[in-house]
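WP5 quarterly update. Target: Histidine phosphatase family protein. Source organism: Aquibium carbonis. Length: 200 aa.
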Amino acid sequence: MINNTLFLVRHGRTAWNEQGRFQGLTDVPLSPDGRADAEANGRRLARHLATGGALPGDLRLLSSPLARCVETARIIARHLGLPATFVETDDRLAEAGFGHWEGLTTHEVKARFPDERRARKADRWNFAPSGGGSYADLEARMKLFTHSLTAAALPIVVTHSGNLRVMIGMLEGLDQGASMRRAIPHDRVLCWSQGRFAEV
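Structure tokens (predicted):
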């Protein structure tokens, strides 16, 4: 089930984010600016939770297993007065792989794989690069993940932009196009409560 309240956080920026490169399952660490994103989100969550009276024992801090998310989650944990070991990783929160696109910019993909690029533009939800995954794959994973959440804890979820687009789309009842167009900044915390999202 979906808990009454749920916090969603994108990992902080990496050098590849800043260079416009596809990351997928490549384990790229946070950049200095990315660590600053995570610190800011940790402060936001700490202030919000303190105002609401949440206790550490009420929380679950769930993260993609990729380093950029784990580091973000550990920084958030520190701001909440929790040890790094409090962070739980869940493979369902990993980004969809981009296969042989990983490490390339959009311009490089257009030049090297024009047919794949056109196929993606024609059906972005179901398209998967060679060796990679699709939004449809993410949807299946994120459905399993969200249905595994229980009312026994208040989840803070640290994951990737694609996963968040899918999860937000499911919760808000958006169509595929609207889900994929949703901007997911690195320096924001979204709170799902009482059937709608708001920034923390």
